[in-house]
């Protein structure tokens, strides 16, 4: 009976350790995502106002007969940029969330299967 309790206690410790690892990875992933969202929001804010001011300056610097054509070209450039961003966002992620936890669990499984041989 003592051996069964010992094995159960060891199994419980292993599960607890794996859950702690998962919890740590989840917190790190959450912090990384929040940080990236804040930086991306700030970058977007500054980029939008910078580009808008640059476009106003560019259009006003051109002679009046070229202003309409310049706005059309700029519109096409922005639409092409939006398409490139959409393509970039639609690609698959290369980083797998919780990779450490999954790797540890896979090693645990392999160790347990190897112990049965």
Automatic annotation (TrEMBL):
It comes from the Bacteria. The chain crosses the membrane at residues 37-60, 66-89. InterPro entries: Phage_holin_3_6. Keywords: Membrane, Transmembrane, Transmembrane helix. This is Membrane protein YqjE.
């Amino acid at each position: 009976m003592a051996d069964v309790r010992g094995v159960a206690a060891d199994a419980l410790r292993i599960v607890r350790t794996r859950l702690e690892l998962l919890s740590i990875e989840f917190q790190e992933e959450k912090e990384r995502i929040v940080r990236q969202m804040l930086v991306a929001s700030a970058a977007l804010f500054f980029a939008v106002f910078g580009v808008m001011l640059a476009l106003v300056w560019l259009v006003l610097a051109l002679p009046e007969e070229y202003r309409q054509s310049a706005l059309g070209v700029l519109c096409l450039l922005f639409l092409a940029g939006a398409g490139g961003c959409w393509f970039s966002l639609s690609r698959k992620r290369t980083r797998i969330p919780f990779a450490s936890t999954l790797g540890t669990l896979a090693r645990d499984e392999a160790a347990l299967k190897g112990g049965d041989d």
